[in-house]
Amino acid sequence: MLPVEERFGPYGGRFVPETLIGALDELTAAWSEAREDDAFQAELGRLLRDFVGRPTPLYLAERLSERVGRRTYLKREDLAHTGAHKINNAVGQALLAKRMGKTRIIAETGAGQHGVATATACALLGLDCVVYMGTEDIRRQAPNVERMNLLGAKVEPVDAGARTLKEAVSAAIRDWVATVADTHYVIGSAVGPAPFPALVRDLQRVIGDEARSQAIDAEGVVPARVIACVGGGSNSIGTFYGFLDDPTELIGVEAAGEGIETGRHGASLSAGST
């Protein structure tokens, strides 16, 4: 049985090649220490402020509020550097990897946003960066591929299976197994073996912490509801975590595709099973 901090209820744990167990133990210990290290947290806070551009605004969407009949605010993560929340986690993990003595970063990407964020963090901190990406995604997301190249990252095409994110993940894990001594794998979603879901949550909770404080400043109370899209889960887990002790209703929205009943959808939490 794994320690309780490696599980989320019945979920979580580690199902990885034995070669990676030591690296995951090392990562767990390093993050546990870094969380309590004032100097590390100060440096991370400085980068989030001066490089990422935090805090991001909480914007009152007036016409949307009129349309839905309640005051509705938007947390503008699109205004963070590189255009999405992905940079919060990428900068944090890259800084942690450097603290651990790693010199090389690998990542996987589908649409390219996590790849761009990771390449950006590596360029900032002077780390080698390799991003695995399916050839079909490379075709569809050429502008983000160009951005990664301009940032000095090496984009490794994966021409197997559906040639999309799933195959890129498999290729990245194979790389990590072979290069674990000097390489850190920056996972961008709330997935993967422990401690990655908790690590991603901790690095993305800045969204929820800021939103809670900003909502109280604007309205005097915490929101009645907080709504976040759920894909890989990093945006939602980071947002929701700031409100767990409040009476706020937390709502995650998954992609229903052609309809839940068709089986052609992305609603793995609503319709999936373990």
Distance between the termini: 18 Å
Average predicted local confidence, pLDDT: 95
Structural class, from secondary structure content?
Answer: alpha/beta
Low-confidence stretches: none
Q: Helical residue percent? A: 40-55%
CATH class of one domain: Alpha Beta
Shape: globular
CATH fold annotation of one domain:
Rossmann fold
Strand content: 5-15%
Radius of gyration: 19 Å
Order of helices and strands: EEHHEHEHEHEHHEHEHEHEH
Largest sheet: 4 strands, parallel
Strand order of the largest sheet: 7-6-5-8
Number of helices: 11
The total strand number stands at 10
What do you see in this structure?
It is globular, with a radius of gyration of 19 Å. It contains 11 helices and 10 strands. It is α/β, with parallel strands linked by helices. The strands form 4 sheets. The protein has a 4-stranded parallel beta sheet with strand order 7-6-5-8. 47% of the residues lie in helices and 15% in strands. The protein has a domain of 100 residues: Rossmann fold, CATH 3.40.50.1100.
Q: What keywords describe this structure?
A:
274 residues; alpha/beta; Rossmann fold; two-stranded antiparallel sheet; 47% helix; globular; 10 strands; four-stranded parallel beta sheet
